[in-house]
Specification:
The chain is of the alpha/beta class. It has 22 helices and 29 strands.
Length: 665
Amino acid sequence: MAGANPVRLPGPALLSPRAVSLSSGCRCSVRGHAPVHHVLPAGETGRGTGRESLEGGIDSGWQAGEQEGRTTDRVARRQAGAGNMDASAWGYMSGAEAVLEGLQRAGLRRLFAEPTASGEIVDAGRRSPVELVMVTRNGASLVMADAQARLTGEPAPCLVGAERGLAGVVPYLATARLDSVPVLVLVALAPGQVVEPDNLVASCSDGFGRQRAACKGVFAVQEPEEVPRLLAQALGLCRSGEPGPVALLLPAEVQAGRGWMRGTGFRRTPRQLDEETRAGLHRLAEIVEGHQQLLVYAGAGCREAAEELDLLARQLEAPVLTSLTGLGVLPTQHPWLLGFGPPPACTPLADDIVADCDLVLAVGAHVYPGVMEKFLETEKVVLVDSQPVRPPGLPERRCFTVAAKQALRFLLENTRARQHPEMAQRVLGAKRAWKRSLKDRPEWSEAVDPVKVFHHLRELLEGEDILVLDAGRHAAYAVSTFLVNHPHSFLMPVGTAALGYAVSAGVAATLTRPHNRVVACCGDGGLVQSAFELLTARRCQVNPVVLLFSEAPFSASPAAEDGRLLQRHDAAWLAPINVEKLAGSLDVEYVRIHNDGQLPEGLRRALTREAPVLVELRVRYPEAHRTDPASGTIATGQLPRQLALRMAARSVLAQLLEAAAPSAQ
């Protein structure tokens, strides 16, 4: 931030132990200096419900422990009787040991650590019940924590060094923020190190012209005894409202210093509806009841409300579209699920159906500028989220600040059941057309069809097995052709830093869900950036399968063409890689698949190996252009990643439907 003083830790100028929260404008005192003001970037709206507290994020369910022994014996006995692990006195220990103790008490059993983060916390981690996973490259610790948080829905911690470690972490930090992933970043500082808070709280763009803070907040610990309280506060902010990453700065003196640690632990508290929120829900139910045909647009905020969403869609017979991060919140075979959205960049199967809906209920999702403009112009959108970001054109009375689970449950109890048999038949017909488009495709003899890759994967993987995607055109084919049947089985970052995500996230997914198969998909650029995390997989004795989508044949870069989606540019093309030798150098198994005929057996062989496997797929991508009439309202040029993915997946699916139409007739 312009004009903000650097924070020196340790030294005469110390950041106040209170949070530098970016959920609302705030200030913190720096000893020996004027107050440092942390103001929201331009375009950032105030967040929160007014019930959240920096002293522990009570509204989120994480409640901080009491400081310095103020907990009474009565409270301690009541907690012990409730079966909590908490105890008022943790014992005499170092700050590093208190960090590990706090993670354990919070139920966080794994800590991902950077190779640059050597120090007291790493040494304490080797003696702690918390599993310490040392990654291979900078940035991978946050990617792995991000993947674990997406799979579990709970905060996941990572440890980074504050020098070279931060350079690799910040891009993935912005991705976690834009994708609403609760990650706790523990920053281990060296003695006398100077820290610029802007490195962690600098604004990042969502691609639609809006700026958001890359980190929800930064906490700085000054004394070892503050670790229990500030760790609880950081976890509370991490999970409160819209989830997101939070940083905790740990000076070397705090890590090594010893003291008596006290706190009531990390207890989960239920959310309570106040009168204002309840009145808003009654207004929401009246709006829904006043419209004939509802369309639900479900985002990642609905992951913990999948059951309520399922029941409401059936009760109101309302078609459902999901955001990219919400894929899997309903299984693909759900009778009312149409696919990805929102309009106009949604699946082409939904175009006619969406046009006949007179109200869009956006739940747990962001509505970006330039999206759903026709609905916004006529006030046919209502937005429900724990921290709604109101898009231009949407009146404030159409935004409701409440968690998705509570809102959907209230609507279930306060709206009447409806019957729309004609709409049900149209949704069924659209789904049949989509399934038909995936069958009877010609077999390629010179390359691998990416459509068939994901079609065969769906047949070979169980419902809760995990697919992880990287940046690249393969992601558009996965979105349009892979059937997602579980809310925590499809990992795809749609933020800014997706390149190199899949391999690291795949390793973390196998650690988090060891009984499920994990398949990580990446292109050649993503593999070059993250291949050495397969060494981490070997150290941890886990067996992810990495699919390398290598374009065949390697040749000069095609000329850039205006309007082409997810097209590579000259600087992105690499020299041919000998993937077999790379796999040998990493001591992982290697499988090569050249054409469609080799695909079923090659994938089956890779998925049955009890070792990490690198599969080279020599794919060919048909060109995907922005030729859809529905995309005419969206400006041409470089698109935000989330919109480019939706448009590319739409184009892929449109081509599949067009190719399948003659055979259907």
